[in-house]
């Protein structure tokens, strides 16, 4: 039996009625001021309005009454708030009779009229990228350069507590039902350029993003391929042998009968019967995956219901009052609570008991059910997510205490049911180029946990460089799930690629797993502070035009800025570039510690050229990024709170970072351990400290090995480093790596209850920029005349480091080329790559 309490309005944290003190109402219209910038407009021909939760809206009373005044003049209402001025003629909504002007925004079209098209909306997201080969239009989000955005909730079904639906007893406690009659129901977000506030309001209205289980932040292996149990085991063992960590096994549709289905039943797209030729003992196979540190999800296409060839057909048919001897198919009917109870209890729960951890709901068949306005995709996401939260003392509940689904986007509010599957993209550079923008603008509709087909799914072409760049984007994506179609030429295993490509792909996968401590802290931030992991740059810099231009670039958590490479390399320089905008201030390359200065108030544009082994990722000054390291006795793909941590720290500013860890057992703020890390400066000295862990410290190891890597600093710092543990002098291991400008301080087996301090009496000076060495590296790889290389390098050395900052334009570099008398033989990409090196500061 389904647990009805899981589906109650209380479980959904629904408080759908508006504050009556913030409502202005007539016979057929109602205006609710939810905040001074979020306003609900309703029209009802009968005068009956919706106070129920809907598929989108859960909470319409935020607990405070916004400031506003209402004036009636010549039949018009004039409603004024600190953020908006609304004019309404108290008649049926029309463009002439209902409009609102957004205050404090420098935009020509900052007035919304009823029915206006959102021409300058900054975008939200879209249901699927199936077969997308590059940019596609997306649905609107709640942010616009005009300062206003509209969400139309008029066609939404309502969610009510009810004991009966369509004459059938309802064990779910609540059900999604149509409104008694059509009403207009609009939400105006008039936050101007306060984009972050608009998204926070959306989360308050629709419900927060839930906490994800820790394992989903590692690497996922997914492939549309007819694996056998033996083949899949060999694959996992090869990953282990190669030192490539995976935490999630995605088993595509061929786990069930497909080609073995008699054509009289239709296709084998839908199925619930394991193919025993491939998986003779499914429970054994799933348990084996668990023993190897992997969670398992199965693909399910539920459209065709349960047909007579299924092993479970007789009992399902009887439960639905169908004679099993008739062979009549049990129709998939999302609107029938009796069917959905059988769907969960008899089809899914037994397989979950056998070891399935969550479901990949792969609905691709349109948006119609027997109930008007109810999208089957939304219904499946809603019911599967809530059902996965059950706590029934089963093995499944013990293994998976935190609810989870994996499905497609089904409209505003879908962030309540993570994780998103974005669909089957085409393997091209155009597809890769669109994915960073698609991910970032999804945050404008609160959808933060997209899982893309990293590497691309189908069609397209083989390009090893393309695959590497996609893997690198995957490492800095919300979810990193490799995927490919069932082609013998399209396997995404790194060993299917050559030399440098294989090494770069493996490195990206290892880095992603190492980032789990950082990602899990951002997971908590997303759930409790309404801050998605990936954010567009204009959220922080709304009045700077450049922040809107480079749509590939995004914030990745609190510490990092990512500019993925989405174009192929230039042969002449053997590097690829990303166009980068750096906001005003100091920045550091996350990987090698090179220092960049962006002086203008409007920030700085540059080209960042990188070898195949990495892409441009920048850390803010003072950034603190915790990474996990392999520890003795821990599995390579462990997702336990780690015993060994590497903390990468950058100089330039004081900063603090709190590492959050829990036991994954509940969506609670109570059972967390926090470890605060801080970089402080006082006079000429600097200190990095790690405070004793606080809170539920039983969820973390009793002691840890700490490796603190200060990146981008001068080597002299290693001679004045001093470390203490609880005030007593310690003897750390200290080393310096000139290639990455990194000083490493290691303290082993330190109790997590102890305080660590690493002091630098002479401060943390930023390393001198290794201009000559980096320029030499560019010229060394450049495909050009040797004499031109030599003369160019000589000219750079002659200028000296003090003169190099004056080389701020490409014209200056052409001048360097001219000195060689071979200017025409210095390829433009080489000049551009040198420009980055010579003008970083």
Account of the 3D structure:
22% of the residues lie in helices and 24% in strands. It is α+β, with helices and mostly antiparallel strands. Among the domains are: 4-206, Immunoglobulin-like, CATH 2.60.40; 213-363, Glycosidases (TIM Barrel); 623-760, Immunoglobulin-like; 770-840, no CATH class. The relative contact order is 0.08. Its EC number is 3.2.1.177. This is Alpha-xylosidase. InterPro entries: DUF5110, GH, Glyco_hydro_31_C, Glyco_hydro_31_TIM, Glyco_hydro_b, Glycosyl_Hydrolase_31. Keywords: Glycosidase, Hydrolase.
Short description:
With 841 residues, the chain is an alpha+beta fold. It has 16 helices and 42 strands.
List keywords for this structure.
single chain, 841 residues, Immunoglobulin-like, seven-stranded antiparallel beta sheet, 22% helix, Glyco_hydro_31_TIM
Number of strands: 42
Q: What structural category do the secondary elements indicate?
A: alpha+beta
What is the residue-averaged pLDDT?
Answer: 94
Count of runs of 4 or more consecutive helical residues? 16
Highest-level CATH class of the domain at 4-206 = Mainly Beta
Query: What is the terminal-to-terminal distance?
Result: 65 Å
* Low-pLDDT residue intervals, each spanning 5 or more residues: 804-810
Beta-strand percentage range: 15-25%
The biggest sheet amounts to: 7 strands, parallel
Q: Helical percent range?
A: 10-25%
Shape: globular
CATH topology-level fold name of the domain at 4-206: Immunoglobulin-like
The value of Rg in angstroms is 29 Å
Examine the secondary-structure arrangement and name the CATH architecture of the domain at 4-206: Sandwich
**Main sheet: strand order:** 19-18-17-16-22-21-20
